[in-house]
Amino acid sequence: MIKRYGVIYIGSNKCELVVGQRGKGGVNILDRAMYPIDLGSQTFARGKIDYASVIALSKIINDYLAVAKSSDVSEIDIVGTSALREARNRAYVLEQLRIFTGGHVVRLLTREEEVALGLRYMVFTGGPGIIDEKTDNLLSVISSGNITMAVAEKGKIVNLHHSDMGYLKMRELFRSVEESSTHYETLLSDYIAIRSRVIAESIGGRSIERLTIASHDVDVVAGLCGIPAGEDGCYHVPKKAFSTLRDDVEGLGVRQIMKKYPRLNHFQAETLRHTLLLYLRLMKEAHAPELTLIGMNIGDALMNFKFNVTRDRELQEWIEESAYLSVQSLARKFHTDTNHTKMVEVLANRLFNALKGKYQMKNEDAWVMSLAAQLLDIGQFVGESDQGAMARDLISRSDIIGLGAAEKRVIGSIVYGVRQFPYEMSVFDGVLSPEESLRVSKLVAILKLAQTLDKSRKQKISKLRCHLDEKEFVVTATTGKNIQLEKYFFQLNRDALKKVFGLEAKLRIKRTSL
Q1: Domains of the chain (ranges plus CATH)?
Q2: Reported pTM
Q3: Cα separation of 8 and 335, whole Å?
């Protein structure tokens, strides 16, 4: 068991160390240190990080490692986010950091990992009210490089949208016109409106009762509004107080903002307008009476989930349930036949359960298969030609909570494989690893049979039983209707089961009275 744990977080404008241990009812922070850096400005403005910054960062990390060692930590992680992740020379930077820190590897959080971590931390910190099962809420995680917006319906996320327009990235994008433009804030507002328009579509006709934002330096915004932290540790800022602050800084330059608010450092003053405009846009879309702010810290988030195993498991289940609902929402967006896809999922799970023991498939495989079943038909929305490839591309480009690029690649490959006829495992050569290819092929073979059993899309089968022996896989379908179409396509598609499992699939019909 880990007694003490340390995190070194490399962000866009700071490198931070957090050391903690499990405490009674939570985590006790034993040490914390922060040093300002400017990796975000370099990456977002020039696309790469200079060598001098790598040397300076290495020294900071080595100092932090020494502190962690003196604190007797049993495990330490070094993580980076968008500033490192989006640098064109990140491979060189990571290698130099490894060499200069004595072999310590910096782990880059993927965009999807960062989003899931932020949302989980938001719920962990803000409590059950953040995902109230009786209301619809809008959740947003804002970092220096990115913004994520999620619509939570009755406690589960059903729509997710990601945009690379964090407050620092916007600052660097429009730095050259900030001083020369007399309508700079109008320019920013229009840009934010264009990039966030999809969130209005996601909200639809829902009545959003709560808007919650997790971000860095929320204490600064709340402090300028005159709002102290509540008993829950969050800042509850009324719409009027926020609007007053927004009006007070409108048209002010960085120096004027620092003069008006001496507590702000230069970086905070530089990004204040960008942050406020992002908040304002979200408030406009949500129509919420107040803004709930939660301080976001990657180091603290990793620390909490390292030690709070039970709560972490609960939040992971919440992510998985939200992923399923998000996939269903995506399927509806492309006008799929929901009755058909649900039936295919049910049939596929029955086939899967009959095969999983002998062929060593896991519960995670069943979950991935269920997600793929919901998305089998999304390619039809684009056109009949090459539906599998279209569906695969749509899946890879969609924002789905809890699913990273690797998971979306696997699900997209499953959908693509189901649409291939005749099916050959070689279609994944060069796309998937051998292990992924085998996993995908098993799920493709099962789904190909399942979707044939509802080929008419009329849910004619009332019951399905499976019998497995050494050479045969006998599927007995109970129905009171004519299923000749299903029987014909079952025969056409059973070759995938033979190629992957070495089984001969047979369909038997058990008739019931109408």
Answers
A1: 4-109 (3.30.420.40), 112-300 (3.30.420.150), 334-511 (1.10.3210.10)
A2: 0.81
A3: 45
